[in-house]
Amino acid sequence: KVYSNRDFELTVIGFDGRLDPHTVLGRYQSTSSRNFANFNDQEYDQLLMQGLRETNPEAREAIYHRLQTILAEKASNVYIMDPSQLAVMQKNVTGWQNYPVYVLDLAPLQRAK
Question: Distance of CA 83 to CAs 5, 80, 102, 110, Å?
């Protein structure tokens, strides 16, 4: 009821990210059932569809950067916290990489001798 009917003044929600930006950014399309923020912007909607059709990786990246800029400039959401992700390991472990989404790729980890 709360999200489907947009019956709230303030909410706490979590996003689980995916490696493709469309998964998260698509929820801000004005017609998306997951558009809990009620964001509505014609340029955003058009760019989102363009990004979905674009096959050139560099052009697609530029489109998704612009989409994120629009969301920031129009303040689609105001985030009051960001969960921290900490990684602690011995000095001889190398290859750790933080990702912007919840991914733990342990394959590149190595232990130095």
Answer: 27, 10, 11, 27
Query: What is the reported pTM?
Result: 0.60
3-state class (DSSP) for residue 66 = helix
1-to-5, 31, 96 alpha-carbon distances in Å: 5, 18, 41
* Closest to 30 in 3D by CA, of 22, 18, 38, 21: 38
94 with 105: CB under 8 angstroms?
no
Show the tokens assigned to 9: 């003044």
Asked whether residue 19 carries a pLDDT value surpassing 90, the answer given is no
* pLDDT, tens only, 62-73: 999 999 999 999
